[in-house]
Each structure stands twice: as C-alpha cells, then as structure tokens.
Amino acid sequence: MNADELAQIDRAHFWHPFTQMADYEPLVIERAEGCTLYDVEGRAYLDGVASLWCNVHGHRHPKLDAALREQLDRVAHTTALGASNVPAIELARRLAAIAPSGLEHVFYSDSGATAVEVALKMAFQYWRQRTDPRPRKSAYVAFTDGYHGDTLGAVSVGGVERFHAMFAPLLFETLRLPAPQTHRLPPGVTNETACDYYLAQAEELLRREHERVAAVVIEPLIQCAAGIVTHPPGYLRGLRELTRRYGVLLIADEVAVGFGRTGRMFACEQEDVSPDLLCLAKGLTGGYLPLAATLATDEIFAAFLGPYESSRQFYHGHTYCGNPLGAAVALASLDVFAEERVIEQLPAKIARLEEHLARIAAHLHVGNIRGRGLICGIELVRDRATGEPFAWGERRGHRACVEARRHGVLIRPLGNTLVVFPPLAISLDEVDHLMLAIEQSIDPAVA
Ligand SMILES: *Cc1c(COP(=O)(O)O)cnc(C)c1O
Prior knowledge:
The chain has helices at residues 3-13, 50-53, 62-72, 86-98, 112-129, 152-157, 161-164, 194-209, 235-245, 298-302, 324-339, 346-360, 396-406, 428-446; strands at residues 29-33, 36-39, 44-47, 103-109, 139-143, 174-177, 213-218, 222-223, 229-230, 249-253, 277-280, 292-297, 366-372, 375-383, 388-389, 409-410, 412-414, 417-420. The chain is an alpha/beta fold. It has 2 domains: 3-57 and 342-446, Aspartate Aminotransferase, domain 1, CATH 3.90.1150; 66-339, 3-Layer(aba) Sandwich (Aspartate Aminotransferase, domain 2). The strands form 4 sheets. Strands 4-12-11-10-7-5-6 form a 7-stranded mixed β-sheet, with helices on both faces. Strands 13, 14, 15, 17 and 18 form a 5-stranded antiparallel β-sheet that branches. A 4-stranded mixed β-sheet has the order 1-2-3-16. Strand 1 and strand 2 form a beta hairpin. Helix 3 (62-72) runs antiparallel to helix 11 (324-339) and helix 13 packs across helix 14. The radius of gyration is 22 Å and the shape is globular. The model has no long low-confidence stretch (mean pLDDT 97). The protein binds pyridoxal-5'-phosphate. Pyridoxal-5'-phosphate binds next to helix 5.
C-alpha cells in the first residue's frame, strides 16, 4: 500500500482516540530508531512526546528488542489466574525492590486506567476485610483536573471537565480538592504560602469526611494531563502525613511521572513518600508493550488472605495479567536503567532543557512554563500581562504542533499548552533540536 492508500483506509476504518475524525490528518509512522520516528514517506520526526509519555530508552533499543525476541522463543502469553510465569515473577521482585519502601506486592494489569481501577477496588475491599473493618469507607478524594485514565472508575476520580462531563451520570461520587498549583494562585496566596494553603483545604475535607473516605488519589508532583500542573513543593509529603493522621489510604498514580521522568526513578522519592498503593504503566516496559502494575503494602495484601471459603481474594483480573512478553521487556528496561546509568545522566539533560526554557520564557505570548525533570509545559496566552488565555477553539497549541512537524519534531498540545515529554534517552543535541523547533513554532501559531 502506498502512503495515500494507507491514509485513506486509516480515515475510513481506524477510529483514533481523543481525535476529531472529521478533520483528522493522518500521520503514518512506519519505523523508528532511537528518538526518531519515520513516516511512510521517509520523513523524520524527533519523538518529543515519547510516543505519548511512555517511551524511555528510545525506540528499537537493542537490549529491549533482544529481550522480547528471547521471550518470544519461549512463550508469548500464558494465564496468571492461579498460575505464573518466569519473567513476571522476576519483575514483581524487582519492582518491589526499587519502589518506595513498603510496597511488596505487585498486581499486574495492562494500562494506566486498569492500574488505577485495581487500586480503587483494592482500597475498597481492604477497608471491608481488614481485622477492624470500616465498611463506611466508600468514597474517594481526588483533584480538580486530575486524570487517571478513561475507564469509568478512573473517570470517576478524574476531573478534566472536557473529557469527563459527558459521562457524569455514569460515575460514582468523588470528593474534590482543588488542584494544588504554583501558577494562577488564588488571591492572597503566594508561592511561599501555597503549600500550606492547599494542605489546609485537604485537612479540612479529611477532618470532616474521613470516616467515609477509602482513599485519596493523587498524581504525585505533576498533574500531567491537566496541562502540566505542578504542585507546590512539600504538598505530597504533607498529604501523606494527613492521610496517615486521618486513617485514609494514599493512592499514588505514577503512570506518567514514574520511571525517571521527574529526575528520580519515582516522583514519590522526591518527597520521601511511600504511598499505600502505587500505580505504574506507561514507562514500565520502556514504552514497548501495554503492561501495568499496582503495588500494595503488606497490610493491604494481608486483608485479602484467608481460607478459600471466606471468599476474601481479590475478585479482579485481566486476561493478559502479567503477560510474559511485557514482563520480559520491562525487566530489560530496568537493566538498561542500571547499565546505562540513565537516572545519573538526567541532570545534564534537564539543565540543557532549562537553558532553552529560560529563552523561550521571554516570548511575548508565553504566559507560563511549568515542569520538573524532563516534563515541561509551555503555555501560550493572548496577553502575558493579564494572563488572558487564547480561546480554546482557536487551537493555538495545535497550530504550534503542526508547525513543529515542519521542523521535524513531533509534540502534542494540551489546550494551549505545548507539552515537552521526550524519551529519557534524548541526547543533548536532540534537546537542542526539540527546543529550537518549538521556539520557531510559537510565532506562526500566535500570529
Ligand atoms: C496516561 C495516564 C493514565 C492512563 O493510562 P492508560 O494506559 O492510557 O490507560 C492514568 N494516569 C495518568 C497519570 C496518566 O498520565
């Protein structure tokens, strides 16, 4: 099939996610190498979105490719229901070893959304089955503009109006906290007082409602899908202390920020926090295959143990739980983290990114730049002095991304915020290319 035929069939039969198919312009990728994607016409694009926040070590990493091939020579899939497989066992041990302390038990699923569903249901069942049961704990606390995936439980705790409002009648009730921010602070709140201000709101809610709250669900440090909304330093740690004090579980959704993105292996490490449940997906396999994990503490795990007749087991599972191919490539990804000292190399890349951002920040229509590590959002505004945004429908962010493609860079916007989220393997030269292309794309987009 030639490029035109592919594009035509793409539009006719492949219904794309989060995509208005009426004006969808196909971009058909054929192959990739390192951080570069090639389309069917041979055009090259730097993968500035890490193939939607999941690619870690670049595409076609020899070690990951080999691990997948070797596992393929043994078995591609076998069930985890009452049975096991070699790479998934080894991966569970490795994840427990590198995760924040106390998370010893790994429940596999296949996407970020399912990792969150698992955590929500585990928390619910835990409160009903522990030695001192609390059957009133049925509600969840989550954040405005939070995003946890698109299945209905994950949407219930999600808070992005534009994605979620349509499905409101299908959702369970969630108690909502305002997204803690470091920009657009409420009147009277400064960067120095923001952390205390938002923690006071969390405390007020927990004090009032803790008896019916099963868990608080948070994206640690950065609410990515909200438009790279960064939390004030200290907020996560403060929230951990509050959830302990009020007897509420803390679910950390590190689906986006896990695996090195913020400069540490897990974002929770930045504030020395161990959640009760930890959700991992996107970067888990280095961005190769759909595999997810929900890690739980001994205390939660113990509440599910008992004689068979007590029916205490976790009645939840997915056909491809603990898929051996996914587990094998995830193990290889963890090996690469160690062998190539991936985390140790991040500070130089982050510093280079920040040099570019300092320049871009001076642009007349850049209202705000937020981020941490190799995650960053560049918000375009109509008026920098007042912070007045561009109207949503003007699609300024989208226009900048279309322009960036002409400079050989693939990025995606969230509204009028340009999201920079490259593979950790990006080189310093590639950081330069990425950021210069983005800079050159702003003028045409805001004109
Ligand atoms: C992407 C994302 C999810 C959903 O992951 P899927 O694999 O797309 O289901 C959940 N939580 C966060 C924080 C995410 O960024």
